[in-house]
């Protein structure tokens, strides 16, 4: 990350580039070097630049072997084609690109239907750059609804300590007290009792996560809703739920149709999802939907007329490429309900079978089994002292696998886990290869005299 513009190597370095790129002018090749900190004086030929920048990007990891990320790393060529045609379209310019706007509207309707909105016509929603922006918008709506009650205290938001970092950002940016319910023993996410116990008259809402980032487990949304119903009966406090379905809102509708977590529960005011996670689109798209206009205070919706027409907007970003929205619509049309079910089921099948096989290797204990989100976390058994999860993560990296190791939040910071996210394209065959690599590594790890890797030098990215 560049936070300051220092004097970089390009000031002194000369030569070293590929002479074949220079055509007939070797002197030019000898001086060809990529600028790091300032613009070069003159333009360069496009093919040369393409080659040089591409070469440098070789150092990036292989996304298909990245079992850390939830974000889509494969789409079919037709989707690439469509996205390439749409990158130049500015999503926000609904007057110039009314059909892109129409595709966005259709996607919102499709999600309203998938999430069982009782009155789909009342639903209001939009695309965003991802779940983070979607959560900011949902949190703002909760805060605004609370502030209309005119209560004097400081607003708070109740959620498990396992929330994704975007909720901590929301609280910091919008000056809301984060009421993080700590983990306790083997309870790694929010429960109904704990949620209610943390609520008071200044609680703007409860965030329930469908698909915890830490271990892939679903929080019990229906139980939380029932407990908040009971709280309302007892005290009159009417506290809405926002469901952070970044991953699970695109899994549960297809694989757990009987699980009630969505707008079937009257207390659920809003839901977000990441189109670029199990929505199966490349990075850059999320969605947020409110049950009805009462859940989204109208002051948050701005009407702008700069671009001709009168356009309501309630996202944080203004300009944004239209490609992701077109790709989301493509994916909805392409797969349909049955296609989505098949893709998500395949991920869950790989996750559950891989989890079982890892458990049967011997040294590991599963925290989750991959049967909710196709994601599971595991740790080493207490008797394993020769190595720890950080060693496993580091050694797997030698083969190109990115399997993050990290410690749990407050109260369970003693617990360090590995987590595997099974995504579309991570096949049983690739899972076999991972098991082979793990099996080959274990005897070496078992010969260590103790854990070698320091947690702070291991792969930490796990969001
Ligand atoms: C990934 C994730 C987010 C953030 O989503 P982005 O789309 O990456 O902005 C928020 N909440 C949960 C539960 C997540 O898994």
Automatic annotation (TrEMBL):
Gene Ontology cellular component annotations, sorted alphabetically? cytosol
Q: Which GO terms describe its molecular function?
A: aromatic-L-amino-acid decarboxylase activity; glutamate decarboxylase activity; pyridoxal phosphate binding
Does Lyase appear among the keywords? yes
EC numbers for this chain? 4.1.1.15
Q: What is this enzyme's catalytic activity, as reactions? A: L-glutamate + H(+) = 4-aminobutanoate + CO2
Keywords from the named record = Decarboxylase, Lyase, Pyridoxal phosphate
Tell me the segments the record calls region Disordered: 1-24
- Which InterPro entries does UniProt cross-reference here? Glutamate_decarboxylase (IPR010107), PyrdxlP-dep_de-COase (IPR002129), PyrdxlP-dep_Trfase (IPR015424), PyrdxlP-dep_Trfase_major (IPR015421)
Organism domain of life: Bacteria
Modified positions (N6-(pyridoxal phosphate)lysine) are 277
For the biological process aspect of GO, one term held by this record is: L-glutamate catabolic process
Query: Its family?
Result: Belongs to the group II decarboxylase family.
The molecule here is called Glutamate decarboxylase
């Amino acid at each position: 990350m560049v936070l300051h513009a220092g004097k970089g190597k390009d000031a002194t370095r000369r030569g070293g580039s590929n002479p074949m790129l220079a055509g007939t002018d070797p002197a030019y090749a000898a001086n060809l070097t990529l600028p790091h900190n300032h613009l070069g004086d003159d333009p360069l030929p496009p093919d040369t630049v393409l080659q040089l920048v591409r070469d440098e990007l070789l150092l990036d990891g292989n996304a298909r072997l990245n079992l850390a990320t939830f974000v889509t790393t494969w789409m079919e060529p037709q989707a690439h084609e469509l996205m390439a045609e749409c990158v130049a379209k500015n999503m926000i310019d609904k007057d110039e690109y009314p059909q892109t706007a129409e595709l966005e509207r259709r996607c919102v309707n499709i999600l309203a239907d998938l999430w069982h909105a009782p009155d789909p016509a009342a639903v209001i929603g939009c695309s965003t750059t991802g779940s983070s922006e979607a959560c900011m918008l949902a949190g703002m709506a909760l805060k605004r609804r609370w502030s209309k009650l005119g209560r004097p205290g400081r607003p708070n938001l109740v959620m498990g300590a396992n929330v994704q970092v975007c909720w901590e950002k929301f609280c910091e940016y919008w000056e809301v007290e984060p009421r993080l319910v700590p983990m306790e023993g083997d309870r790694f996410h929010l429960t109904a009792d704990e949620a209610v116990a943390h609520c008071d008259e200044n609680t703007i809402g409860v965030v329930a996560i469908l698909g915890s980032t830490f271990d892939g487990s679903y929080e019990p949304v229906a139980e939380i809703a029932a407990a908040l119903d009971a709280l309302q009966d007892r005290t009159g406090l009417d506290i809405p739920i926002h469901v952070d379905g970044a991953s699970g809102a695109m899994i549960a509708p297809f694989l757990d149709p009987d699980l009630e977590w969505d707008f079937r529960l009257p207390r659920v005011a809003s839901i977000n999802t990441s189109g670029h996670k199990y929505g199966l689109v490349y990075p850059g798209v999320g969605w947020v939907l409110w049950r009805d206009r009462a859940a989204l205070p109208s002051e948050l919706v701005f009407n702008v007329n700069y671009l001709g027409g009168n356009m309501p907007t309630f996202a944080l970003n203004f300009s944004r490429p239209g490609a992701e929205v077109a790709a989301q619509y493509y994916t909805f049309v392409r797969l349909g309900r049955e296609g989505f079910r098949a893709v998500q089921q395949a991920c869950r099948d790989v996750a559950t079978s891989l989890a079982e096989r890892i458990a049967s290797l011997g040294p590991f204990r599963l925290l989750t089994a991959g049967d909710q989100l196709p994601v599971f976390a595991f740790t080493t058994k207490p008797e394993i002292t020769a190595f720890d999860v950080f060693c496993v993560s580091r050694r797997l990296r030698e083969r190109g696998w990115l399997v993050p190791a990290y410690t749990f939040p407050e109260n369970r910071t003693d617990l360090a886990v590995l987590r595997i996210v099974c995504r579309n394209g991570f096949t049983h065959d690739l899972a076999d290869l991972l098991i082979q690599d793990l099996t080959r590594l274990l005897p070496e790890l078992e010969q260590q005299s103790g854990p070698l890797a320091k947690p702070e030098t291991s792969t930490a990215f796990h969001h």
